[in-house]
Write a structure and sequence with these properties.
185 residues; alpha+beta; 6 helices; 4 strands; globular; FMN
């Protein structure tokens, strides 16, 4: 049931991934689910840059380390290494990008929301395929266009890391119930 898939979705971080490869077919299934996200006026603003091969993930790793150094005032060798490892530990890393409607026919926040819904579709599909996933939006995304060409009006919103994993998912929790967040009028 869909409600159970939603409740069981978890962020699985790259350090929990094993070395089992993710097939191109599985990545395509995840991306195909993204393409069915709601979109106002059919702008379909989601764009993805896929780093599936080991070579492309190694190059992304190098970029992430260098961009991290430039994005903070006091870089830490530990944090740089952690940033670099995310791409290496993943079976696939996907840059989550948004292509702004050139006509600006709808508010930007609606296109950001559409991209977020596309990522939720990706996450639920990955979960159903027993693939762990995690969305990271570090400050260094501002430099992504220096590593991978972006179209005019396109920007990176983060990275979606995926990997196969062993073990059980942690139990989900919420700080409060939905009734505490709902006002019936």
């Amino acid at each position: 049931m869909l409600a159970e898939t939603i409740k069981n979705r978890r962020a699985i971080y790259p350090d929990a991934y094993n070395q089992e490869p993710i097939s191109k077919t599985e990545v395509t299934q995840v991306l195909e689910a993204a393409n069915w996200a709601p979109t106002h006026r059919r702008t379909e603003p989601w764009r993805f840059k896929v780093f599936h091969s080991e070579d492309s993930r190694n190059k992304l790793s190098t970029f992430l380390g260098e961009a991290y150094e430039r994005s903070v005032d006091k870089p830490s060798a530990f944090k740089r290494k952690k940033m670099e490892q995310k791409a290496i530990q993943s079976g696939c890393a996907i840059a989550i990008c948004m292509q702004r409607d050139p006509e600006e026919s709808i508010p930007e926040w609606e296109e950001v929301a559409s991209v977020a819904m596309a990522v939720q579709n990706m996450w639920l599909t990955a979960q159903s395929l027993k693939i762990g996933a995690y969305w990271s939006s570090p400050k260094l995304i501002a430099f992504f266009g220096e590593h991978t060409p972006l179209a005019e009006g396109e920007r990176c919103l983060g990275f979606f890391y995926m990997g196969k994993y062993h073990g059980e998912l942690p139990q989900g929790t919420r700080k409060s119930t939905i009734s505490e967040k709902t006002q019936w009028l």
